[in-house]
Amino acid sequence: MGYSHYWYRRRTIASSRYQAIVEDLSRLLPELKRQDVPLAGAFGTGRPRIDRQEIVFNGRTRCRHPQSVAPSAFSRMMALASLLSMPESEREAATRAMWEEEHARRRCPGTCAYETFWFPRTASDVMADDAGRYWDRTKTALRPYDIAVTASLIIARRHLGDDIRIASDGGQAQWFDARLLCQSVLGYGLTLPLGLHDE
After folding, report:
1. Is the pLDDT of residue 77 over 80?
2. How far apart (Å, rounded) are the C-alpha atoms in residues 50 and 65?
């Protein structure tokens, strides 16, 4: 699965603003643990790093979740054949509905780890685009730690405002539980504008 989140930001985040992001994310950790979202270090083992210089985490490689079943290759092929047989005028809506059904919930295929979420206070020069913006992305494959990634980006948006721009393969439905988590623990999130494609 290629499900990812993307962000564009300034190279260096002011120390006080970054500390506010770290503090809010730290307040979420007990609730993530209670919801059985195990976070680990960059490679799926050890402890996440959440401090004054960087936020680095991944899902846990040995998470002990029961393996969830993704749609089979055959069922995906049949869905694709069905899409191709539709009139072109109906195809876009049906494609979106199929995508939303596949990405309706987070799944653990036996390991919660996928790609590292890395959000440093000072971005690497490698992350600069031609316009001088600093960007990054994390592909979560919609595994359980995805809620921690989306919640982290909601927190960053709250404290950085227009100094960060967020994009995502998901929409309101996929971000709702992270918004609700932030709202219930931090007091914001449900109405914070993020700029998602269906907002």
Report:
1. no
2. 24
Q: Which residues contact 114 (CB under 8 A, 6 or more apart)?
A: 58, 59, 139, 140, 141, 143, 145
What is the enclosing helix (H) or strand (E) of 24? helix 15-34
Residues with Cβ < 8 Å from 133, sequence gap 6 or more? 8, 9, 10
- For 33-58, the pLDDT digits (tens) are 999 998 999 999 999 999 999 999 99
Give the number of other CB atoms < 10 A from CB of residue 52. 9
- Owner of token pair 């980006």: 153
DSSP secondary structure code for residue 56 in this structure: E
- How far from chain centre, in Å, is Cα 132? 24
Residue 145 sits at φ, ψ, to 5 deg, of: -70, -10
Name the pairing type of β-strands 4-9 and 134-139: antiparallel
- The count of other CB atoms within 10 Å of the CB of residue 146 is 29
| Separation in Å, CA 43 to CA 30, 46, 99, 143, 195 | 21, 8, 28, 15, 30
3-class secondary-structure state, position 96: helix
Q: Where are the alpha helices (DSSP H) in 43-198?
A: 73-84, 88-102, 146-160, 172-186
User: Given this model, what pLDDT does residue 73 score?
Assistant: 57
